[in-house]
Amino acid sequence: MLAAANAFGETTDGGVADGAADAVPAIVISALEAAARGEAFADDLHPETAKTGKPPSSVQQAFDVRHYALSVRIQPESRSIEGTLDLTFRAIEPLSAIELDLDPDLTVHAASMAGVAATFERNGDSFTVALPVQVDAGETRVVRVSYGGQPHIALAPPWHGGFVWSEVDGTPWFATAVQTEGCDLWWPCKDTYADKPEEGVEVAVSAPRGVMVASVGVLAGVTEGDDGFDTWRWVSRHPYTGYAIAINGGPYEVIEESYTGVNGTTYPVQFWALKKNVDKARKLVLSEVFDDLAFFERLLGPYPWGDEKVGFVETPHLGMEHQTINGYGEQYKRGKHGFDQLLHHELAHEWFGNVMTHRRPQDAWLHEGYGAYMQAVYAEELVGAMGYFDRMYEAYVSNEHCLPVVNPGVGDVGEAFDNRDIYTKGAWMLHTLRRYMGEQPFWGGTRRLLYDTREPWSLAYPIAPRYRTTEEFIRIMSEEAGEDLSWLVAAYLDEAGMPELQARRQDGQLKLAWKVPGDRPFPMPVTIRINGEEQRVAMGGAPVAVPLPDGASVILDPHSDILRDLPIIGDCAEQTDAQIQYNIDRFTRMAREYSWQR
């Protein structure tokens, strides 16, 4: 997901969407203000439903999700849905019941297993199905659940998520965006990042005729109904995090091209654009998506889902990294560094988020730090060092340093995203690590993080996804560097503040010392430039003295290799306040542009 703050690049100033409201409702403004501050918004959403990625209950830990088959009927006029879920699960231990998460705003109508009705009981944001017979450990069964109602409406998507309802020239235009709240906002699921359906998903969406529906995987067919509704059936054999399963409907036209990836596989690239924007979308695919793919595949490895598709769909919100069908709402704006930064960011998440997924909420920086850093690396490739450091400077001055990036106290993904430093500081830690390790070890370690190999370019499909933690990241990078790098990562990610390089002239010497939050060890060497001559100074725990001629000019870290505390940003409160009004103004404009309806 793109950062809510102006942390990494420019924002959109596009035109107002057709039918946009003249004024934004007060409740939306309240949600926008909360999003700008990284705070929870006390609307009608159940407080537990608002949490995603939290530890599963003891009942949920007793079964493994193997497959989801979801059928949903969309009623735009009433903003309601009716759905059926077939959940295939394997018992880890003997089971007499299963538990799924679902927003209390949605009603469970019935449950069954193998055609035999099952009783169920609501438990706030979840419900328990009593199985008709006990399922022994190792056995696989299918439970069917029917449900319906009016799903929670997103107030400031994608930061405050749910269903997004809009229209274009009288035709419904809708989307789902639930990263920080979870899949249970609109369908029954096991709302945890740590149990993806190993055998894949099926999504069948019935929508009014004239509405085209884009979703995950491959389109298996469209069935015309006698009631004026058409059913679009999408199938994927890959595992998915619940929030990455999305549905999008509107008056679309599909642009499809073919791309041959680094491993020799030719796969489809689809862009589901509003009909009025099809020419812009075609240009975007041909001029940018192909170049983005070439960049990512060359640097990282094969696109993870080349046996299905690369997918983008125009959405009535800014965007989201939905696997194989990324939401796009940047309104076809090329950024100041020569590329569409939102499209690039969401595509980056196919690697950092979808094929490599953080195991715990506190490791969310693995998605967003890497996802944001890749735009700086791409700007460097396109326009050189000035583009790279322009983006990195924007990130630096957006650091809030209020909370540690890796915070064991974080209980769910929404809490992790309250800390926008997972983007900015995460990216800067990667920059510092790259400069310290060197190109080959850093990128080799990154590829191992994604694929378990330094040289993934010949991998055949399917490519297995994997879970990662910060500790695994440290282990891999340390192995690549040939030394323990836990001190470097911990100094940046386990503390809210940053190391400060203290320097003073005294008695013909330049005295240098690191002041590190938490008094952590930080033996980071420093390049200094004295009268135009550079030298690299080894640093340990004690201050270091360097001979200094009288009147010499001194530049510390002249190439900005190291993330360190500089007197150009304020403290936590100042940094937060400086961006609040900016974000409120930005989100208010977006609410008008996308014609959000409530």
Automatic annotation (TrEMBL):
GO terms of molecular function: metallopeptidase activity; zinc ion binding
Origin: domain of life: Bacteria
Note accompanying the cofactor annotation: Binds 1 zinc ion per subunit.
Pfam families per record: Peptidase_M1
Cofactor: Zn(2+)
Zinc keyword on record: yes
Binding residues annotated for Zn(2+), in chain numbering: H345, H349, E368
Keywords: Metal-binding, Zinc
Domain Peptidase M1 membrane alanine aminopeptidase span(s) in chain numbering: 339-452
InterPro entries reported for this sequence: Aminopeptidase_N-like_N_sf (IPR042097), M1_LTA4H (IPR034015), Peptidase_M1_dom (IPR014782), Peptidase_M4/M1_CTD_sf (IPR027268)
PANTHER family: LEUKOTRIENE A-4 HYDROLASE (PTHR45726)
Protein name according to UniProt: M1 family metallopeptidase
